[in-house]
Amino acid sequence: MSLSPALRAALRAFTENERILVLTDFDGVLSDLIDNPHDSRMREGSRVALTALSQLPLTEVGIVTGRPLADILEVGMPPQDVLVVASHGLEFLQTSPGDDIYRPTARDTEILDALKAFLTPLAEAVPGAWLEIKPAGIAVQTRLCESQAGIQLLAIVHELPEHLASLTIRGGKDVLEFSVSSATKGTALTFLAELKQTGNILFMGDDVTDEDAFAALPPTGIGIKVGPGETLATHRIADTTEVTKVLELMVALRTPDEPVA
Known about the structure:
The strands form 2 sheets. This protein has a 7-stranded mixed β-sheet, with helices on both faces. A 4-stranded antiparallel β-sheet has the order 5-6-8-7, covered by helices on one side. It has helices at 5-15, 44-54, 69-75, 106-124, 147-158, 185-196, 211-216, 240-254; strands spanning 20-24, 59-64, 83-86, 91-93, 130-134, 137-141, 168-172, 175-179, 201-205, 222-226, 235-237. Helices cover 36% and strands 20% of the residues. The protein is globular. The two termini are 14 Å apart. It contains 8 helices and 11 strands. A hairpin with a 2-residue loop joins strand 5 and strand 6 (137-141). Helix 1 (5-15) crosses helix 8 and helix 2 (44-54) runs parallel beside helix 8 (240-254). It has 261 residues and is of the alpha/beta class. The protein folds into 2 domains: 5-102 and 183-254, HAD superfamily/HAD-like (Rossmann fold), CATH 3.40.50.1000; 106-179, Alpha-Beta Plaits (2-Layer Sandwich). InterPro entries: HAD-like_sf, HAD_sf, OTSB-like, Trehalose_PPase.
């Protein structure tokens, strides 16, 4: 399926801006969703286009993901000039590994230990469920569970005991994440807009947590939802293959004398 005329026109207008910032989620956008997140890899066509885009003048490119920084660096292997924002905006990589890695306080560690003690027996009781330990929280993953069992588990763990009531809860596709941080992809996008001094921002995402980024886009920004579901994004594409097409089109539009398909 080809990109819609409306989206192509929006991308043409967007790329005509002097300075642009192109941001994208990783899972379900740059990579296909698979059962084992550790086996995820960036689609080669998207990697090539993302790299080419990042090397163009006045064109900043970044990955904004809920994965921990160490995880996305290992799994995603982002191109050298691509900015990485991890842990829903809590960790930033701008030049080299370790620039801005979150380190929990003693109180955070105490809360996270209590959270793990609460979640572990509940997850262990459901076949296919597992806990993903993150720098500032824990995610309950049910992608491999029987559908109804996964839904029931997430409903149970959502009701936190009183001593854990201060945690931030984020829902997603077959996942519920609990965090000591209130950072979101929206706060990350706002920070990057100020850092890069531009309101010309494009963001592509597929999950519930990406809606925070869509909501934070300035009037000059473009939001692109990947796949089905309610969204605040102004445009929608079908899948990761169309993500590659969007990136390739922006490279062509942004490159002098490059033919546009």
